[in-house]
Structure formats: C-alpha cells, structure tokens
Design goal:
heterodimer, A: seven-stranded mixed sheet, about 50% strand, B: mainly beta, six-stranded mixed sheet
Chain lengths: ~120, ~110
C-alpha cells in the first residue's frame, strides 16, 4: 500500500513568489493535515481538510491556503513568500472512526521549501 | 503555557540504559495521545499510541496520567538506533480534531 506522497521534494523560490505543494493521502484516508516545521523547531499546525472541506486552521496568515480535491488529495498554497516561510512542510493523512488505526496521523516525507 | 510541553534534552545515554521522557498537556479535554519518532530531517513516524491503562511494545512502554495531565515514554535496553527526537502528540476534539505536537525530546544513545 502506498504511503502519503508529497511533491515536490524540494522547492526554491524567491521572496514575493508563490509556492504550491501537493499531497496524496493513503488510499481510504479522507483527512489531510498540513504542518510547517522550520529548522530546529517543532511542528506547527497549518490546516486540516476532511471530505473536501477546511475543518480547522492554525495561527497562520491568510496567504497560507489550500484545498482538498474530490479524490482527497490536497494542495497547500503559500502566496507572497517571505524568508521565514523556509521550512519543511509535512502532510499527514488519517481516516475517521473508532477502529484500530483510526484517527492516527501518517506523514509524508515532506516538501522542503527554501525562500531566497 | 504551551499546550504540550516536553524537555528538549538532549538525553545522552549509554547503550543498554533505560531512559524515560515525560510530556505534559494543558487541555484536560484531550482525548488521545501518541508518541512519534522523528529522525533528523525526516518525517515523524508513529511509535505508539498511548492508552489509558498504559501499553507496551517491546522495549517501549507508554503511560498516561490524566489526573496530572502527562504522558510518559520508557525505553529499556537502549540501542544506538533509538537515537532520534521523540515527539509527544495530543489530540483534542473540541468541535474538531486538533493534533498538537510537542517540540520533541532529543535522545542520543552512545556506544
């Protein structure tokens, strides 16, 4: 079974540009979470999508946005890039319910964004 | 006060040692708890879920203390390969699911 896949692996942009990151969840997972991890820091919650809708949002400015598609894949868009947006962006997926493995996050390998 | 707090370490221990990490959380409505392991510049990977009665998986034991609002991870017979950052994760469902990650505790197992 394929895991959570993210693309691109690495992305280099300059200040003011836009970045788009993509995530494909594990088959059968309907929830997608996005986290930002700056170098040496912890994971900061960005966004949660479930069944195509945004369910929760972290303390990030509106230039961080995203969406979830009918096939449950998701993209994260970061507009007007700033130097401090340089980080590892991690996507995780989960499936709802009460059975074994439900509501447990499985992460992709991440997309490393560098803003110059 | 942070929602989830961990001692950042590093904990430097010799091979074969037993080491324990604690993690405190502030929201008494928190419902589920996990320990993840993260290797340098890699994604976090689930180590184990933490159940109310405590649970064990090989050399790893996790405990939950709801009254004091902390979870713990005990690693016995440490291996060099256990060197990593251990992340405490708390899931609070107050309307919507919200997974909060601690900043992690670094463990270095020394030969």
């Amino acid at each position: 079974e394929a895991g959570v896949t993210q693309s691109p692996t690495h992305l280099i942009k300059t200040r003011g540009q836009q970045a788009t990151l993509r995530c494909s969840p594990i088959s059968g997972h309907t929830s997608v979470y996005w986290y930002q991890q700056a170098l040496g820091l912890g994971l900061q919650f960005l966004l949660w999508y479930d069944e195509g809708e945004e369910r929760n949002r972290g303390n990030f400015p509106p230039r961080f946005s995203g969406r979830q598609f009918p096939n449950y894949s998701s993209e994260l868009n970061v507009n007007a890039l700033e130097l401090e947006d340089s980080a590892l962006y991690l996507c995780a997926s989960s499936f709802p319910g009460s059975g074994f493995g439900a509501n447990v996050l499985t992460f992709g390998a991440g997309s490393r964004l560098t803003v110059l | 006060r942070k929602e989830v707090e961990q001692d950042p370490g590093p904990f430097n221990v010799p091979e074969g040692a037993t080491v324990a990490f604690n993690c405190t959380y502030s929201n008494s409505a928190s419902q589920s708890f996990f320990w993840y392991r993260q290797d340098c510049r890699k994604e976090p990977k689930l180590l184990m879920s933490v159940y109310s009665s405590g649970n064990e998986d090989g050399r790893f034991t996790a405990q939950l203390n709801r009254a004091s609002q902390y979870i713990s991870l005990l690693i016995r017979d440490s291996k060099l390969s256990d060197s990593a950052t251990y992340l405490c994760v708390v899931n609070t469902r107050s309307g919507t699911y919200k997974y909060i990650f601690g900043t992690g505790t670094r463990l270095k197992v020394l030969a």
